[in-house]
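Predict the holo structure. Ligand: S-adenosylmethionine.
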Amino acid sequence: MTTVSLGMPRLPAAGVPDVALPADRPATGGLVDRFGRVATDLRVSLTDRCNLRCTYCMPAEGLPTLPKDSVMTREEIVRLVGVATRDLGVRQVRFTGGEPLLRRDLVEIVRDCAALPLRPELSLTTNAVGLDSRAAALREAGLDRVNVSLDTLDPDTFATLARRPFLARTLAGIDAAAREFDLVKINAVLVRGVNLDHAAELLAWCLERGFELRFIEQMPLDADHAWDRAAMVTAAEVREQLGERFALEPDEEPRDGAPAERFVVRDAHGGRLGRVGIIASVTEPFCGDCRRTRLTAEGGVRDCLFAHTETDLLGPLRAGADDAVLADLWRTAMWGKQAGHGMDDTGSGTDLDTRPGSGFTQPARTMSAIGG
Ligand code: SAM
Ligand code: SF4
């Protein structure tokens, strides 16, 4: 991973970079890029640590963890979220990781962000292990929504995918989330030969409980670099699997920048059962309508999950930079966002691959380290 300091390695006492920033960048306003996209949706990684080891995300032995003092503190997170909402037009903030529930001060972080003058919508993406004892406090602190990752309802398959036998703990967390929050979304990644044929059962379970399920295509962000385009489960296959049990029809509601393509789910008699979403980042990319900006746990701005560079905000913040400087650095980082992630840019026809020369290189950081 390369950290880009935008050509300003030296920070004078006030923390103000002393090297010129690109002249064509916007000096005021929101997080606009050269292609006219505006980022209003911020993902903040609160930690790189996790209590699961999902095969598509982490290696079995885990990853070296960041030193504690290089991870943003509660005050630093709230300060940067404040800059994003007040100066940069961010409207939604999602806390993620790693596993955000591993932060002891999560409730306080939520409370402080909810008290910001321009309060953003606040949500959490979690594996829900331990959520049962914290869901009520999180709602009281101001959390608006929860997304829980759940790939299967079978305990053995869960243990295979997550490399931890924690299905019951995740389900307890989901129960608590359902008691406290109006809308619970479930995220699932399907892996061929492991849980692909669990998709319809998982959807039926979610529909019965009023949860909105979203299937996410597996992306090449795993630590093991085992992602294989030929083996990954595509959105088309997910539709096919679900089609064996349900009728899916495209949702009329505008997508409005959401990563998931949504479908209304009907039973064999045409009765409406609910909705399902499919996030087809690989086979049907939505980069042209991307509205996301990301902060890593170390306070680096990433303009894309697949970016190879980051812009450090935490260093300048700790060196005394004021909010105007931090906003300027953030705007500059997003101004450089690429048109697309390049996974569909193979130069070899329509087939996707990640071989050298295919137009795509897997970032050095994994999903857990970036903040998914
Ligand atoms: N630990 C929390 C969780 O699992 O919900 C938050 C972080 S996790 C990185 C966020 C989301 O990324 C999860 O829904 C997970 O399933 C998804 N994810 C992780 N690795 C992925 C990959 N290689 N491709 C697609 N989605 C992935
Ligand atoms: Fe942990 Fe979430 Fe990655 Fe699974 S997907 S290893 S729960 S960060």
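The mean pLDDT is 88. Residues 50, 56-57, 96-97, 99, 125-127, 149, 187, 189, 216, 218-219, 221-222, 367-368, 372 surround S-adenosylmethionine (ligand 1) (CB under 6 Å).
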